[in-house]
Amino acid sequence: MTDFTFDMKLMASITVQAETADQARQWLVDALECADTNFGAYPGGYPILRGLARR
Known about the structure:
By secondary structure, the chain is an alpha+beta fold. Helices cover 22% and strands 20% of the residues.
């Protein structure tokens, strides 16, 4: 099969518990630096896993 690459923008709402909004924002930025995403599976059952890019 041929691979096709598409650029997409995804929106998410994430709740973070912290003492301050600045602390919560920093924790979230740090956590997302190395995050991966799981978009389910291809028809053959192989997982759709990709790295997360924060812009």
